[in-house]
């Protein structure tokens, strides 16, 4: 039997708490990760009712190219934080998944397979490509998964216009922080939250510089796609 669904926090409380989780828990871990050659992607699993962070992890591609922040976080949630199935919060009803960057195809599958239904991310794929020089989330979805329609005569333009994946699907709903704030009716509150989002995003500028500099200097990493 699955646990009853926890009540949802207000969008303002949700976004403020997710931003605080990024600043207080994920960024400090990211600082040591990028300094040792790993990418700056991080994740956290929070308890849905209280928004308390249960597991926090960042990318560890120094060890394995599959240890993306989200996958590392999921692995730790199941094996280290809650190894006992009896006490583990139900990912479907009692957890929220936070990713600093919109999850790649590997991590989207990991999230679906683990049962997390509510996913929020700070940076979009376009941000990862344009602000962080990491284009592979988009490229893998386009090159590996985007199948051209065989019956219709789909043009290159039509193909390019298709969404890269279903943000709302049977397994989860993925929303950017901005999407959530955009739904707010109160203009003043929306402006305040959007400013907060930009302020926390800006904290990644320096982290990106450290990662890019490490790449040039040949930092140790198991990743092929840097
Ligand atoms: Zn990933």
Automatic annotation (TrEMBL):
Residues 35-122 form the CMP/dCMP-type deaminase domain. GO terms for molecular function: catalytic activity. GO terms for biological process: nucleobase-containing compound metabolic process. Coiled coil: none annotated. It comes from the Eukaryota. Gene3D superfamilies: Cytidine Deaminase, domain 2 (3.40.140.10). This is CMP/dCMP-type deaminase domain-containing protein. InterPro entries: CMP_dCMP_dom (IPR002125), Cytidine_deaminase-like (IPR016193). It comes from Lophiostoma macrostomum CBS 122681.
